[in-house]
Design brief:
This protein has 6 helices and 2 strands. With 173 residues, the protein is mainly alpha-helical. It has one domain. The protein has a two-stranded antiparallel sheet with strand order 1-2. Helix 5 crosses helix 6. The longest helix has 27 residues. The radius of gyration is 17 Å and the shape is elongated. The two termini are 22 Å apart.
């Protein structure tokens, strides 16, 4: 989930899609070092405070639960696309496994970033880790689906990311 990382907070035993009490804390990752320097000191301080708050409650295990729940929300859309392509069950399961693993690894990298935000280069490390996971998954999906279908899958991911971001923004209002 490229544009931003999110934490879904819900009551134990509830799934975010089923709970009207799900809260979304949207944390936009710094995309470039240049962007970080564009922030004035008060904006940087606000970002540090938000990240420190997220870091206190974040763990790899907690992030994994979040990412798995987010994947469950997206999985029907993936299956719908794969059904349209008339893929075998084995190919569908493999594609879903690749996508899920990519998101779990990126989530783990995000937690590592939150825990080490004050360490120079931690944001760059997170971005590189995310790019590596995206590249590895893209290569596997290219082999499994073909380049054109993987592009279509990427467009679906982008649309779902945009819808998620729009929902997060609307909850802030």
């Amino acid at each position: 989930m490229a544009a931003a990382a999110s934490f879904y907070l819900w009551q134990p035993g509830q799934q975010p899609a089923q709970s009207g009490k799900a809260f979304v804390v949207q944390h936009a990752a710094v995309k470039t070092v240049a962007r970080a320097f564009e922030l004035d000191e008060s904006e940087r301080e606000k970002r540090r405070q938000v990240n420190a708050s997220l870091a206190r409650m974040a763990s790899v295990e907690f992030q994994r639960e979040i990412d798995e729940a987010a994947f469950q929300i997206r999985e029907p859309k993936y299956r719908e696309l794969f059904a349209r392509w008339k893929m075998s069950d084995a190919a569908v399961n493999k594609a879903l496994e690749i996508i899920k693993e990519r998101e779990l690894q990126k989530g783990a990298a995000f937690v590592t970033y939150l825990k080490a935000e004050d360490r120079p280069g931690s944001g760059k490390d997170m971005r590189i880790s995310g790019q590596v996971e995206d590249t590895l998954a893209a290569q596997e999906l290219d082999r499994l689906l073909g380049v054109n279908r993987n592009r279509e899958l990427s467009l679906l991911d982008e649309r779902l990311d945009n819808e998620h971001a729009a929902r997060a923004r609307s909850q802030d209002d």
